[in-house]
Sequence to fold (891 residues):
Amino acid sequence: MLSEVFIIVVRGIAIGSIFALIAMSFNVTFGATRILNFAQGNLLIMGGFFAFFLANGVGLGWWVLMLLVAGGLIALFSAFQGWITLIPLRSSVEQDSWIISTVAVSVILGALMLITQGPFAYSVQGVVPPFRILGVRTPGAYALAIGALIFWYIALRLFMTRTFVGLAISALSQDFDAARAAGLPVRRLQLVSFAISGLLVGTAGFLVAPVISISPDAALRYVLNGFVAVVVGGLGSNLGTLIGGPLVGVVMMLTAYQIGGAYQDMASLLILVTILMIRPQGLFGRTSARQV
Amino acid sequence: MNTVNTMTARAGMAVEERAVKPRFNSDLPQLWIGIALIAITGLGPTLIGNTYWVHTFQLVNIYIAASVFQNFLFVDAGQKSFGQGVLLGIGAYVTAIAFGLHGMSFGVSALLGLGAAILGGLLFALPALRVQYFHLGFVTLSAAIVFPQLLMSLDKWTNGINGISIKLDWIHGDLFLGFSPLTLLVTLWPMATLATHYGLRRSRLGRQMRVAAVSPEAARTLGIKPGMMRFTAFIIAAIGTGICGILYLPATGYVSPQGFNVELSFVFFFAVVVGGRGQMLGPVIGIWIVFILPNIALAQFVEYRLLMYGVLTLAAIMLFPDGIVGSIERWRVKRGVTGRGEQAFRVDSFLEGLEGTQEHKPSDDVVVEVKGGTKRFGAVVAVDKVDLKVRNGEIHGLIGANGSGKTSLLNVLSGLSRLNEGSFMINRRDCTRLPADRIATMLGRTFQTPRIFPQFSLWENLKLGMDARTEAPSAGILRLAGELEAEFENDSAELLSHGQRRLVEVMRAVLKEADVVLFDEPAAGLSSSERENFAKLIRFLSRRMNKTIILVEHDLDLVWGIADRITVMEQGRVVASGDPASMATDPAVQHMFIGGRRA
Fold:
């Protein structure tokens, strides 16, 4: 019994860390652009695909190199997508065309993966060997997921507070017009935020490839769980994702164990609706002052 | 006698102008074209005797109807839903379970299906009461992913992956000329949905929904509850889409989980974008392109259909964001509708005839009273223990430097934000805890940036004031409304100047017969002649219509020119209050004038 609870918690936290990583990548672009990229799940899966095709069963050195290559390529793609998404926003009075364009890109990426790779899930051999905690065999990628979460949390924090570009992006998230008036290259900073977001979620997909289902239709489920994590934690709060992600992960594992795996997505939908009804700003979110 | 003559002359001119003025929007012609297209595609194949096209267009027309509700939800209510396929699926599945598995009559089964679709709509609608914008996109997308999973795993009730087949012979029988009841139903239903959408748009509910979608805070000051509007929209869409689901069942004769995956919801959503968001005809053209093109015209490439949906939609949003119908409409509007420059919107002549010549005087009745009002934003105290009394019919100037709390106080008075401490009363009624939409019946306001809705004609923009009423209008207002309608029915509000836009907001307050009108920096951005006219209008509102005015303004000459009383605020506190003459020599005010010009 105790070991079962333990497995649920460990796996839940590990899977939840993946959601938290997606949630964090949401926060990066949301701060700078007020855009949530619906294709973020596809970028995660893309990272997984890179791991399958470039780094399946290779040595550590090659694996690290490919991790950087995959991260870089996905970051480039993400910046390109950001550029496309931001074009209509430049002139239009209607500021939510991004919902349509990022969903369209998500559908296109999913369809391309389906056409070229088929609907099957791929399995990737991890570079970190499985290990045992309290006698429970645990895939190495679980440790990587949790490690990546901690790494990115600290890295983003340092980046946002210690570097000029990071501070400039933080400025964007606080007051758009003031940042523009202060002479910040707003559009370029927004593209940088997209690139960072892609790098984050792309490397995350690469790292956790052994434990996620790398199939075209998995992307939407990951992006939704990432969104639930960011809503639970509070949109814009990276600290919140550290709680939100694992919370969603544990609830999903618990659901799979108690009711059945088919109800996991249902459980996360219920979390989402409940949070939005009771505390829409999330656990760590701020209520924004009304603008009239 | 003279006035009567000029009135008739003006009315005569208006008639002439109306004859040449093109329609403000093409909703009505689009409705008729849409109905004609549906009639041709719905009835044509039967007349020709082509069974393949009969079946194809049965499904196409059901999808058109579903997309009409998506369009309504998307544009009129501003809600991006990626889960409309779920509501259609619930309607179809529950009908199939009751009819096919439990042998109930089709009528009862259909009612159960409709009820279930409404319950499903509630799942979308309940969060809509609290949140808006992209949150609901994720909720509905999530539902679209969960729904087929549930159909599979609840196989005890749904038959799981095997799906449910039904036979309903009478609905395919020959009624007359080869038309089956089903053919007639799936032709009439999309026509009815288009007509419903059109009717909603013309209704008070539809207008208020569209205001709430674009500007929730302006909506609240016009007596609208934005959350309630979103909720209502989701329920209307759920009913309509649920009926589509009921029709889907006999049209296909079969339901299975694969038929209701997220792809179906995407089809409806993308059809609206490609066809033209907000255009009556958009869903018809959109479904033809998004659904027919990949699934029927290019059926040999059917595995590429998801790619085609995505590419079509991305191309649409990048190249012609108004969609196909929307681009044509934009071109038509560009050619036809023109502004009337300075003369586009003058209200003086309309107001003249409104109230008699009786001159009102400010009385001693206190209409607005704030007692110890404090409003904090975090550590910032925006309004600090403010006491304020505004008397009936007076023009009360509220002045002070930027950040002194004037607008915060106006927001409190109009209910947009709540006092942390203290209380305020309007007409002796405690309004401290009253929501903005309730206060709206007593109080009208203008915003620093006027809230004008370009999707409405100029008259509809004004009519929002009438819509906000809870009581029947007086005869004078009714006549005024009629005159304004005749004059501005087909005018665009988009080309109005800044000053004219502000006038629109004022007229809304007049039309709803609010006792109190708040002006938030009305003179900012006005030319000097516009300022003069505006001062006249404010005086008219106070002296002739007996309205109580609170005027936040930086143009001190304007304030001193018209105000009966002036209150000075500094850092959230009231530092001085009194009549203009004594205020001009008050030391608290002196430093506000450059070089003590008023001293």
Q: What stands out?
A: Chain B touches chain A through 48 residues (CB under 8 Å).
